[in-house]
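User: I'm curious what two different proteins look like when written out as structure tokens. Can you demonstrate?

Assistant: Sure. I'll show them one after the other, since each token string lines up with its own sequence. Here's the first protein:
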Amino acid sequence: MNSYLKMLSCFLIVTCFISCKDTRIHTAKTWKINDGWKFIQKDVPNAKEINFDDSTWTTVELPHDWSISKPFSKQNPSFSRGAWLPTGISYYRKHLDISDIGTDQKVFVHFEGAYRNAEVWFNAHYLGKRPSGYSAFEYEITKFIDRTSKNILTVKLDNSEQPGSRWYSGNGIYRDVFLKVKNSIYIPTWATYVTTPKVSKQSAILNVKSEVVNVDDKTRKLELRVSVLDTRGKEIIQDQKYIAVQGGKKYALDLDLEIKKPLLWHINDPDLYNIRLELFEKEKSIDKDSVRVGIRKMEYTVDKGFVLNDNPIKIKGVCLHHDAGPLGAAARKTSYERQIRILKEMGANAVRTAHNPFDSEFLDTCDEMGMLVMNEAFDEWEVVKKPQTFREKGNKVRIPVKYYAHLFKEWANKDLKDFILRDRNHPSIFMWSIGNEIDQMRDESGVAIAKRLMDIVHQYDNRPATCGVNGYGWGDWPHEPAVAQIDIPGYNYAKGENYDKEHRDFPNRKMIVTEHTSAQMIANRGEYYPFKSVESSLQLDLLISHTDTQKFLKNRKAYEQGMKAWIDVKNRPFVMGEFIWTGWDYLGETIPYSWPARSSSFGVVDLAGFPKDGYYYYQSQWTSSPMIHLFPHWNWQGHEGEKMHLNVFSNTQEVELFVNEVSQGRKTNDLNSTKMLTWEVVYQPGNVKVVGYNSGKMITQETLNTVGDISSLELEVTDNTEITYIEVKALDKDANFIPTANHKINFKIENAELLGVANGNNRSLEPFVASFRKLYNGKAIIILKKSNSNKPGKVIVSTDGIPEVDITF
């Protein structure tokens, strides 16, 4: 070959190497990239550079909340609202191996949530910023990939401006991160939308909408297969379309599929179907998408309230914050499964996500377990909130938070749109919420904002939206033209007469109580004062006499206000139901406590996941299986011969109390009353027993004994999927639970990582990540994750004076 031909050959080879596309068909895939992140808790501006040395940084696994394991301190600017835990700037770096990705493929990085002001770089190229710490977001990184060297993903988070929230937000990349690899023709994230426009027991229509994007420069001919898989994973329907998508264009899918004799999604039978879309080119799969749905019919009426599959259902709901107690914001799916299980055992059928988007895995869990969801987007619009915060002397101050109001004008439309698009396929969602206690709902400015947000909801989904508004009956009623923009107005802390007035004034208005006091306000689990008057025995005994604290305590009676709130809703069919504040204690918002309290005590379940007494009030009202609950305990050394009060929640018709085998009388149990059953008795060691009767026949009973000193510890694995929860209880020599035990317990662990420990005491400053914990009123919880999933894990628990005990999982 002469020199000219050699030169021409080399030129053609080089030109082809530079300009020829990779025409092979590659596999599209999505996977989590949660392991092996490098982390540091400080500002490192040059960390975004490719050759930055992060070898001295800590290696962490996502989800990761870096502040939850830190010491509590009065000097932390998050204050009691943020659980006295540190905040600030942090960086994360992830080294990615993407050498096997085709040159013609597109790559995206997807974040489910990172708190907050997330700025992202890939190979030192700035991808963007997402201020909200609760929004999911993704970026394309295709054009910045280096196929000859390492690739570095860098994330900066800044939560240094404090106080930054009304509750504990968490800090870090506290939700999953995914890498998505697509071909040049693909189904975009959140493009698929499935609705059930017609539903009956005989048949159901599934409407499937989606789109196919072609970023190639030529027309592509494809086969699009749409399949429906039943709850067992068996394909029951397949449809296919042959499509041609021009270069740079989109194809919009709109397809109806009919299912004969469908299994309907219901709170008691949450049957799910899987809708699978798959693109084929030349018989090779080039992309797929999968959406899990429930077939159900939802109706919203004035006279019957909420109707699911032709059955009226009273909403028995709880408000929740997003933290998982000792895990902070870094919850796992097991955490959600445990939470929903405990709430369903109480009789709850709905959750309000207060007051921000939750993790997708939480909604997945609600889909699977049959829990309805009011899905809430915002806690602020344009006006900054100034929540009440209590000082150590009991005086109340109001401190403005730098949360979202400063972002609302620029980001609210996008955050709300992405929120709806991400979540709209979840069958558990029965209602959206565009805000909580929004001050602008009291004046003219709320009209235009409410309409704008409602229009966004209606553009992307067909379910109604509410807005939780307070002030009804407080002499400062909301601005009616603003309220009129809402599909179903939400009522916070209203009273029965307020609902009646609204119903008279607006007889066609649908109503729901978005928030009201729980039947266990402010007190910790197992905290009792039974030798006082009936009212005082049920109230918190705070050693603070400041008028601010005392006024708060007087207005938030421990049980009565919450019980009346439910009766007001229960007996009014035109009110769909209520959500109590709260189902679960949460980190931050410690009112009326200050230091050393670092978590709330509004819930009917404590921070460790143990039910309080108020939990059983709702169980007596919200469940039909016979139940009875007696409190307080019968361990009052030093009070022998004194009069005290014993209380009962039950759903039986009559209840009889026995003290040391002597009847104290039988009482009628009126389930439409706001009074619990109470007996005044004389304390003497021994036992107390309550018996519940229906039609004169004994149905259920409970006995409490005076217990002895600690003799053993009982360990029980209660939840054990992705992570493991182990409950610890103190027992005496007769295996009776000891409700006053506060012994320090120590842990030794094999083949497991300790994720957190807790005991439910909101005033404990013990660290959440430690090899020890004090029992609080007899109980504690240990949360672990196996190091090697193929081998059993083991925890050994000990306390002074008794043999150690162990359990494998």
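Here's a second, unrelated protein for contrast:
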Amino acid sequence: MLQGSLCERLDPRETPDAAIAMIDAEGTVVGWTSTAQRLVGYSAAEVVGQAVSTLLPLARRTLLDWAAAEECLARGGWSGTATVRHRDGHAVKASLRFSLLWGQDREIHWLVSGTDIASLSPVATTGWVRDSLLTRTPIGVVVHDRDLRCAWTNDAMERQDGIPRDQRLGRRLPEALPGIEAQRLEEVMRQVLDSGVTTVHEYRACPAADPRREHAIAASYFCLQRADGQAMGVCCTSVDVTVSQRARERLAILSEASTRIGNTLDVMQIGQELADLAVPLLADYVNVDLAESIQFGEAPFARIGPLDDRRRILRRAGLASIHRGVPESPWARGELVPVPPNSPFIKVLSSGRSHLEPVLDGSPGTWFDRDPDRAQTMRENGMHSLMVVPIRTQRAFLGTAVFIRTEEPAPFQEGDLLLAEELVSRTALALDNARRYARERSAALTLQRHLLPQRLVQGTAVETASRYLPADADNGVGGDWFDVIPLPGARTAFVVGDVVGHGINAAATMGRLRTVVHTLADLDLPPDELLTHLDDTVRRLAEEDADSQDLTRVTGATCLYAVYDPVTRKCAMARAGHPPPAIVDPHGKVTFPDLPTGTPLGVGLGVPFEAVELELPEGSRLALYTDGLIESYDHDIDTGMKRLGSALARPGRSLEDLCSSVIEALPTRSPCDDVTLLVAQTHSLNPSRTACWELPSDPAVVHRARTLVTRRLTQWGLERLKASTELIISELVTNAVRHATGPIRLRLIRHHVLTCEVSDTSDTLPRLRHACASDEGGRGLYIVAQLCRRHGARCLTSGGKTVWAEQELDPGI
């Protein structure tokens, strides 16, 4: 049955100049074409009525030796190569094909088609003509008379278009097969009959052997001439080009797949890309289900075998249908989809082999009984043919792709499965790349998350907010870092640093430096001394890595370190090649203090760092940042600092809003360098929370110190700590009297903890040691360590030292 519409006309350059001649049972030429005249040089007047043997003087016994006619009759024809005599005398090596034609009353004729092998172009020899003329592929032949009634036909024609010979002979095509397509083909034949020009067309037909599936038929129409050169009819030779057309269609689909699948690293989107491509080119409905853990970079199905409960749950990643709303799917995209037991899906996941079910069997007793929801949906939507293809790599199964036909009546065939497997294979490669990217990105984000503070210090003395915008936006990691470190005496350290480079390598280097800063901060070093030690560390690490090929080696960094004391409202800071901080007073005025720049860390110039101490008004804001916030390719640093100052000059706004406004003021959302911003709101500690006394360096002052401390603890309601605090103060003051000269300062600070501080003029720091049984001293710090939460000592910038100890307070104090 002819179906569909007439396809576009084939390019004449892709078809050979085939010669067509018609011969009766006695071997006499009864019909001739202009293409035959071009091949051998004889006109119709010279050939029609003559014996064909005059053109084909074959030396061996062939079809033209009519004694073998019965053998050829049984075979239905003959094909091969032969030498044809040209009119001017030269020989033409041709590919010939003799096709047996049947007329009414079982009368037979022969149709001879021939092509000069030397004249076949490379395009023609690779097209359908090579498959038809140079091989034994059956060619359908129909000869129509001047009234376009079928006069002759062969058996191959019925196999191509499904029209029986008896139904065709003596009738016009619309009479044998009513329909618009038959009328169009008859119009083509009439044009050939009137013009004498050979025409090639392609149309769709459903052959008798495969009535449910359309085949592509390529047909050539030739005008047959009588001896007087007048048209005697139209000859149609046709060949089934379904295989080659499907091959071209598959190549086109695969070519399109290479551009449409894998353009993203989002596994869910890749699944949708496969579904969108396959509908309607291959199937009427497609769903793609992936293991949920793929989104996190894991390979869930590492081997073939039985599936545990975890592997029986997939997430629907792709959905596409020829119907609006995708009614075929009980689950929406993104939802978890259970895999029914003993179903084709389980078999595919456990075996790794595709499942093809040309005719879907939904009868009772099948796997449909164990999955009623899916079975009902399939029946309601007329799903009749199924393919389930595993999405897999060499080492892992990632999920399944399901292809279903509903409206398309033809069932899936092996060729469709091969195409589906090729599409899924390309999708699996894209999914595996996305999975690996997700794993690497997850590792990078985990690294960054552990390298940067997860919770900034908030409290009575400071409030903080931050923003971090890496230049490597894909991985979300960079070489900038910031920290807020609590220090003894209610003080807080702020640090911002910038490692040379971007990405995970810079982040690894940043992690090493951040650890060093934490260690040095625990020693309670002044800012300038801390940077000096940090510079020594960077240089040492660089020397250790000098001969290494490790990409995480230290290459240089800048840093700013500041310490704020809420008791005195003073902030000491120093920088190593880093931009200066911004100080915003309570009225919104922004200043950038003139700090000594210092050399970047690791440069090795040996220039000492200098610290500056500033007094901050109550309610001031301190902004620390990296150069990525103020530098860009098209603006200098001064322009960036003015932009930053304008964004910070907004009193009354919360710290979070202030950070957001600073980031929004950036000239681009894709900075060329990592951007870090740390903003701190500073507060002074209420004087009622501190107590300070100046004491002479006299052994008798120890008793007085205990009395002053216990009295203040009573005022604060901390009687519980009297005994322990008395012992701590006694030991610390005694050590100050014994090992130092000059006045002694005693200070109590009630903050999150109770801090006891004793300062003297000596630069020698005490150390904890184990005294022998015969030693008369050396047990003071040991006693202090047993009574307090933590203890330590620090040098003062003005000279001398402070020894301190902290004790826990009751909650709510």
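A detail about the second structure: The radius of gyration is 46 Å.
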